[in-house]
Structures are given as structure tokens and as C-alpha cells.
């Protein structure tokens, strides 16, 4: 099959099609040199399907007996092609040079192109109905960071609109809310522990934000706060009912173990985690004794994930209340904090 390629200079180049789009000769390489299309291969230029279809749609590439619709149908035999094409077209229309990359695409800095600049973003394309594998996303983010690139997930919804999310997996910096805590005594009541008022005021500093005041005489610890203080040897429950308390919680809460791992990690890093039930997540997290929490954190057991639609709702909610959205992927005692943030390229 022969291809006839027309550039902005209105000259045509013919090339054979052998499973990849190929444009041979000096005229073909002008597409690469002028606008960053394709990849040189000796004296030829390979155009990948997304590039070829984009050029065809712009009237810069014609293929004998195949118009734009026919080309789109042919390329769409490969799963996910149209989603990738929509992202490719959107980024090209923004005036940026984009090429296939180690994920789906790499995008160059504005005004730069292959051979005369370096790429800024690595992009993975997903559908709104895809299931997000957090371990895989974290691996992509680490790979991008090692290459000094920003990792971006481009999500194409069912109406072909695109949302871009920057993904970061940096370790949380040390917080500034560490207070010395002295050992206290408490009384088990259901799944809560009442701390004696004198001890509650004197030994659980207000800045550490442990518990809530049930009334003027009783400070109530949540289950996770209770477990944390027990594990640190900072709480004694009257009657020695610690094991009974733990067993009951584990039976009632299937998420308890990995939530507890994240809670302990945040506390040990001098952050203050509190329940984020009203936001639909596990923790709202405070730092620097602020009255406004800085992050929402949702604990995820290693090897699991969630639908992209749920991730999207979480990010939008966090943005609306001026918080960062982090997913804490727990693998044994190792915790990977993965931040999703909407961006505009």
C-alpha cells in the first residue's frame, strides 16, 4: 500500500505500509525536523497510528483508497486506540509536541521538540471505567521521577472529554505536630475508651488532638486512637481488657488493620489524623496545629485498587474543600502515599 504525505510545504512523499506508518526520504524527515512527528529510522521516518490519523484529519496525509474514517476504523482494531488518539489530538491542539513513550506518550516542553529540547510529561491514558491499580500507578510515577519527568494520567470519559491528573509518590515530609504524651488510664465503654478528666487534660496535650470531649468530665478516644496509644504503651485500660477490645474491633471492621498501619505512620510522622467519614474517606490530616486539615487520606491494601470514577470523585471533593487527595497503599508495613491532583497542561 502506498501513502501520499503532504506537508505544510505542499510536497508529497510516497511510502510503503508494512504494519507501521513509514515515510522514507528527506522529504519525509521534514515532518520530524519541522514539527516533531514520527521517529527517524535510518533514511526513513516512522509515523505511528495516532500521528498518521492526526495528520490525515488535518489534510496533511492521504492514503490511497482510505479516508480519515476508514483509517480510524482500521486503527481502532487495536483496543484503546481511540482514547489514545483523543489525548494525542488534544495535546497537539494545545501546541505541544507529543510522541509515543514508555507509558503511552511523552510530551515536550512548550516550544521544544525531539533533538531540540526534552520531554516534560509521561502520560498514561485511562478510561473513566478503568480500574486503578495503585501499585502499577506508583511504579509508573517512580519511573517518571527517575527520568525527571512529571507523571500524568489522562482520563477519557464516555463523552470523550479529557481530565488530566498529576501523580506524585514522594514520601511525606516530617510534620510539625509532635507533642510529648504521658501515660494515661481509661475505662472501656463499648468500642470507646473514656479517659479520666484530669489525665485527659494533663497528659494528652490539646495540640495533639487526641479524642473528643463527651462532656466536661469525659474525654472519649476513638478505636484507632486507643489502639495507637496501647501499642505505644501510653494507655492502660482498667480491668486489662485490651485483647478483648482488639478482637472485637477486628471482627467488626474488616479495614481495621491497614487503616491502623496508616494511622500509625501519620502519627509517627508528626501528623494528626482524624476521621474523614463525612468526606467519604478514612482520614483528614492536620499539620502545624492548623484548624484546617491539609489532606484527605484513604488507606488501600496492597494489590487492590478502585474504579477511576471513584478516584475522580475523591479528587474533586478534596479540591472543593482545599485539601490534597492521597491514597495510602499498604503493603505489610511499607506504605506508599500516592497523590492525585487535577492539572491543566
Automatic annotation (TrEMBL):
Residues 81-164, 258-337 form the tRNA intron endonuclease catalytic domain. Residues 18-69, 184-247 form the tRNA intron endonuclease N-terminal domain. Keywords: Endonuclease, Hydrolase, Nuclease. GO terms for molecular function: nucleic acid binding; tRNA-intron lyase activity. GO terms for cellular component: cytoplasm. GO terms for biological process: tRNA splicing, via endonucleolytic cleavage and ligation. The keyword Ribonucleoprotein does not apply. Coiled coil: none annotated. The keyword Hydrolase applies. This is tRNA intron endonuclease. It comes from Methanolacinia petrolearia (strain DSM 11571 / OCM 486 / SEBR 4847) (Methanoplanus petrolearius). The lineage of its organism: Archaea, Methanobacteriati, Methanobacteriota, Stenosarchaea group, Methanomicrobia.
